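CHAIN AND CONFORMATION:
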Amino acid sequence: DSWSGIAEINYELPDRDAVGEVACNLAVQACEEIIANAVRHGGASKIDIHFKVESDLLKVIVDDNGKLNPASARGLGSSLLDRLTLNWYRENLETGHRVNFEVAKSR
């Protein structure tokens, strides 16, 4: 695990056959970007990733204990998430920060 000693990351991946290889790859790339930003820009040390297969979508919620800077400008990471996902948004939580995104299932 490349984040060992930097951040604790908890997740349970969905069944690859249920969502398709392309959807899994897109979700993993988006999660990698979100994790990197949470650690680098938000100071996160704990990240929980939840996957939900719903209809033709793979819905993903990434929670971290970092801080969201609401004044931060859109950067390369935002552009990457725009390309990888159907839609995404971020929000503050009492315990940190959350990013929600969706990718289309592929079979």
Q: What stands out?
A: The two ends are 28 Å apart (CA to CA).
